[in-house]
Amino acid sequence: GQSLEQPSEVTAVEGAIVQINCTYQTSGFYGLSWYQQHDGGAPTFLSYNALDGLEETGRFSSFLSRSDSYGYLLLQELQMKDSASYFCASTGGSYIPTFGRGTSLIVHP
Amino acid sequence: DGGITQSPKYLFRKEGQNVTLSCEQNLNHDAMYWYRQDPGQGLRLIYYSQIVNDFQKGDIAEGYSVSREKKESFPLTVTSAQKNPTAFYLCASRPGRASSSDTQYFGPGTRLTVL
To answer: Tens digit of pLDDT for each residue in A9-24?
Structure first.
């Protein structure tokens, strides 16, 4: 089976750095993805890690440690528009992704 | 513009009625997925299709049905057997098993309300 754990809510102030953690239990683990979803909208892809290490895309970075079954999304220079839900999703050998329950990020001025 | 579309955006249904949600993609993707999202919850997989004319049940398939007669289209029918159908329904597509990308592309969603 597959399951992912991530915090339900994280708060931070504008300009700060925030890290959203994700631990997973996935049979035949293939990779870990991150998605952003604003209220009422569809999830949009942010980042993907198949190998250990850090992937950087602008203000967002994602990290994976396969040996620890752990990853995180790092958001830098937070902006009000970053307030959204963030989902980690793992893909196993069946190529069927499983999503975590999501982390609600609240950015305060 | 390539993308994935869903219609309608909002849908109201009376109890006991079947309703079909549309999902179309012009990304030439092999794999398509249907998810259900309830308030404050993650995405739960209803059905998926890796290739035309083939589909598989996901974690919560009871009360739902799908078809995949064309690569571009993956409609979802919510039947009267689904006891609690009010939710936000998301369709997604992905290039397929042969792709090195794990990215899923989502449609804008259909919000279904049962009256």
So the answer is: 999 999 999 999 999 9
